[in-house]
Automatic annotation (TrEMBL):
Organism: Rhodobaculum claviforme
Region (Disordered): 83-111
Domain of life according to the entry: Bacteria
InterPro entries referenced in this protein's UniProt entry, alphabetically: SMc04008-like_domain (IPR023163), SMc04008-like_sf (IPR036810)
Protein name: SMc04008-like domain-containing protein
One Pfam family of this chain: DUF1244
Ranges of residues in domain SMc04008-like: 32-97
Protein backbone atom coordinates (compact mmCIF):
# COMPACT_ATOMS: atom_id res chain seq x y z
CA UNK A 1 0.00 0.00 0.00
CA UNK A 2 1.39 3.44 -0.87
CA UNK A 3 2.57 5.69 1.92
CA UNK A 4 1.03 9.02 2.81
CA UNK A 5 2.76 11.63 0.64
CA UNK A 6 5.86 12.97 2.37
CA UNK A 7 5.80 16.20 0.39
CA UNK A 8 4.25 18.79 2.73
CA UNK A 9 2.49 20.69 -0.08
CA UNK A 10 0.85 17.53 -1.44
CA UNK A 11 -0.14 16.35 2.03
CA UNK A 12 -1.60 19.78 2.86
CA UNK A 13 -3.53 19.83 -0.42
CA UNK A 14 -5.02 16.41 0.36
CA UNK A 15 -5.91 17.47 3.90
CA UNK A 16 -7.52 20.68 2.65
CA UNK A 17 -9.54 18.77 0.05
CA UNK A 18 -10.70 16.26 2.68
CA UNK A 19 -11.70 19.14 4.99
CA UNK A 20 -13.71 20.79 2.19
CA UNK A 21 -15.50 17.50 1.58
CA UNK A 22 -16.26 17.16 5.30
CA UNK A 23 -17.72 20.68 5.38
CA UNK A 24 -19.76 19.99 2.22
CA UNK A 25 -21.02 16.74 3.74
CA UNK A 26 -22.08 18.49 6.95
CA UNK A 27 -23.84 21.21 4.95
CA UNK A 28 -25.73 18.50 3.05
CA UNK A 29 -26.77 16.87 6.34
CA UNK A 30 -28.40 19.59 8.43
CA UNK A 31 -30.57 16.84 9.94
CA UNK A 32 -27.53 15.72 11.93
CA UNK A 33 -27.73 17.81 15.07
CA UNK A 34 -24.63 19.32 16.67
CA UNK A 35 -25.54 17.86 20.06
CA UNK A 36 -25.54 14.34 18.56
CA UNK A 37 -22.18 14.99 16.91
CA UNK A 38 -20.78 16.17 20.24
CA UNK A 39 -22.08 13.10 22.08
CA UNK A 40 -20.73 10.68 19.47
CA UNK A 41 -17.55 12.34 18.20
CA UNK A 42 -16.59 15.05 20.66
CA UNK A 43 -16.82 17.80 18.06
CA UNK A 44 -19.46 19.57 16.00
CA UNK A 45 -19.85 22.31 13.42
CA UNK A 46 -19.24 24.95 16.09
CA UNK A 47 -15.96 23.26 17.00
CA UNK A 48 -14.89 23.25 13.35
CA UNK A 49 -15.73 26.93 13.04
CA UNK A 50 -13.80 27.72 16.22
CA UNK A 51 -10.77 25.77 14.97
CA UNK A 52 -11.05 27.63 11.65
CA UNK A 53 -11.11 30.95 13.50
CA UNK A 54 -8.17 29.94 15.71
CA UNK A 55 -6.06 28.89 12.72
CA UNK A 56 -6.77 32.21 11.03
CA UNK A 57 -5.63 34.00 14.18
CA UNK A 58 -2.41 31.96 14.35
CA UNK A 59 -1.68 33.07 10.79
CA UNK A 60 -2.50 36.71 11.45
CA UNK A 61 -5.62 36.58 9.26
CA UNK A 62 -8.47 38.72 10.60
CA UNK A 63 -11.57 36.55 10.92
CA UNK A 64 -14.33 36.89 13.48
CA UNK A 65 -16.51 34.16 14.93
CA UNK A 66 -19.50 35.01 12.69
CA UNK A 67 -17.40 34.75 9.52
CA UNK A 68 -15.82 31.49 10.69
CA UNK A 69 -19.23 30.01 11.42
CA UNK A 70 -20.53 31.10 8.03
CA UNK A 71 -17.52 29.40 6.40
CA UNK A 72 -18.56 26.12 8.02
CA UNK A 73 -22.36 26.39 8.03
CA UNK A 74 -22.63 27.97 4.57
CA UNK A 75 -24.92 30.68 5.94
CA UNK A 76 -25.12 32.92 8.99
CA UNK A 77 -25.26 30.81 12.14
CA UNK A 78 -28.55 32.28 13.35
CA UNK A 79 -30.16 31.41 10.01
CA UNK A 80 -28.88 27.83 10.22
CA UNK A 81 -30.16 27.47 13.79
CA UNK A 82 -33.59 28.80 12.83
CA UNK A 83 -33.85 26.43 9.86
CA UNK A 84 -32.24 23.27 11.18
CA UNK A 85 -31.59 23.14 14.92
CA UNK A 86 -34.21 21.41 17.01
CA UNK A 87 -34.64 21.43 20.77
CA UNK A 88 -32.50 18.74 22.39
CA UNK A 89 -34.42 15.78 23.72
CA UNK A 90 -33.72 14.52 27.24
CA UNK A 91 -31.89 11.54 25.70
CA UNK A 92 -29.71 13.79 23.53
CA UNK A 93 -28.89 16.00 26.50
CA UNK A 94 -28.02 12.99 28.66
CA UNK A 95 -25.70 11.57 25.97
CA UNK A 96 -24.05 14.97 25.59
CA UNK A 97 -23.62 15.38 29.35
CA UNK A 98 -22.13 11.88 29.67
CA UNK A 99 -19.28 12.77 27.30
CA UNK A 100 -18.68 16.38 28.34
CA UNK A 101 -15.80 15.75 30.77
CA UNK A 102 -13.99 13.44 28.38
CA UNK A 103 -14.22 15.77 25.39
CA UNK A 104 -13.69 19.16 26.99
CA UNK A 105 -9.97 19.14 27.56
CA UNK A 106 -6.58 18.82 26.05
CA UNK A 107 -6.83 18.70 22.29
CA UNK A 108 -8.83 21.84 21.63
CA UNK A 109 -11.85 19.76 20.73
CA UNK A 110 -15.36 20.13 21.90
CA UNK A 111 -17.01 22.77 24.02
Amino acid sequence: MPDIPADPATREALEAAAFRRLVAHLRARPDVQNIDMMALTGFCRNCLSRWYEEEAEVRGIPLDRAAAREAIYGMPYDDWKARHQSEASPAQQAAFDATRDRDSGGDGGGY
